[in-house]
Amino acid sequence: MMATLATTAPVVVDRLTKTYGATSAVTDLSFTLSAGSITGFLGPNGAGKSTTLRVLLGLAAPTSGTALVFGRPYAALPSPSAVVGAILESNDFHPARSGRAHLRMLALAAGIGWDRVEEVLAQVDLTGAAQRPVRTYSLGMRQRLGLAAASLGRPSLLVLDEPANGLDPAGVRWLRDALTDFAASGGTVLLSSHILAEVSKTVDRVLIVHRGRLLVDAAIDEFSDSSDLEATYLRLTAEVTS
Q1: Which among 3, 57, 8 is positioned nearest to 33, based on CA atoms?
Q2: What string of pLDDT tens digits covers the 242 residues of the chain?
Q3: How many CA atoms does the CB half-sphere of 204 hold within 13 Å?
Q4: Cα 83 from Cα 81, distance rounded (Å)
Q5: Which pTM was predicted?
Q6: Distance of alpha carbon 67 from its chain centroid, rounded?
Q7: Is the Cβ–Cβ distance between 26 and 212 less than 8 Å?
Q8: Is the separation of the CB atoms in 11 and 56 below 8 Å?
Q9: Whose CA is closest to 147, among 184, 121, 114?
């Protein structure tokens, strides 16, 4: 696996199509992510972002095409938690379970020691709230718990769906710094978000999708600032017709 991680692109999506009956959620989508990068995955609601992430994470089967993680379908990874960490909007926590108990359950299933649970709790500033039931957590605290869960196995790839949702300005800054440090250490991030101003401060590259199709694949430096990214995003997604 180490050789695979060192020599294979973290993510390769190749001509991916996913249909539900007569509806095409994703159509002929292709992109590749490089190690050490943070990529913003942008698009309006219903653009196909969540479907793409679900296929990438083995939660849905492609109709055609492929979505590979370090050269393999997610289901074929021998130790997924050591390769990929994910936060999806649908991330669920048992409301009566404490944050620490939630992470310990995941660690036990993945064969990870409980000392790592304490490490990730500290990393996301939840040690003081670790014994509280998750039902008492704010949305921002749940996002932090989700990131802690995604980080348990020390993965090389993070797949994050709206991770800044519910975070206050300090939390958003903390998340930006955490992702930047992760990428600087060689990790790769695929980040789905609607917060374009924050995306422009965090990512190296943007993918803009709409109605299941890729419209833009560009380095963030190609946009002069966040308002330029926003204007491009709004113009392109408004112009696309069925």
Answers
A1: 8
A2: 444 555 689 999 999 999 999 999 999 999 999 999 999 999 998 899 999 999 999 999 999 999 999 999 999 998 898 999 999 865 578 888 999 999 999 999 999 999 999 999 999 999 999 999 999 999 889 999 999 999 999 999 999 998 888 888 888 999 999 999 999 999 999 999 888 988 999 999 999 999 999 999 999 999 988 899 999 999 998 865 54
A3: 13
A4: 5
A5: 0.91
A6: 14
A7: yes
A8: yes
A9: 121
Contact 152, 116 (CB under 8 A): yes
Beta bridge partners of 26: 18
User: Position of tokens 């790592």?
Assistant: 116
Strands 64-69 and 11-20, by their bridges, are antiparallel
**Cα 84 vs. chain centroid, distance in angstroms?**
9
Question: Structure tokens of 59?
Answer: 């939660």
What one-character DSSP code corresponds to residue 133? B
CB atoms within 10 A of CB 52: 29
Residues 6+ away with beta carbon under 8 Å from 159: 53, 56, 57, 84, 85, 86, 87, 190
Q: How many Å apart are CA 66 and CA 28, to the nearest integer?
A: 10
Closest to 51 measured CA to CA, from 186, 198, 222, 211: 211
Give CA–CA dist 223/157, Å, rounded: 25
Residues recorded for the chain: 242
Catalogue the long-range contacts made by 115-118 (C-beta closer than 8 Å, 24 or more residues apart): 116/152, 117/152
208: nearest Cα among 187, 223, 186: 223
What's the Rg (C-alpha) of the chain? 18
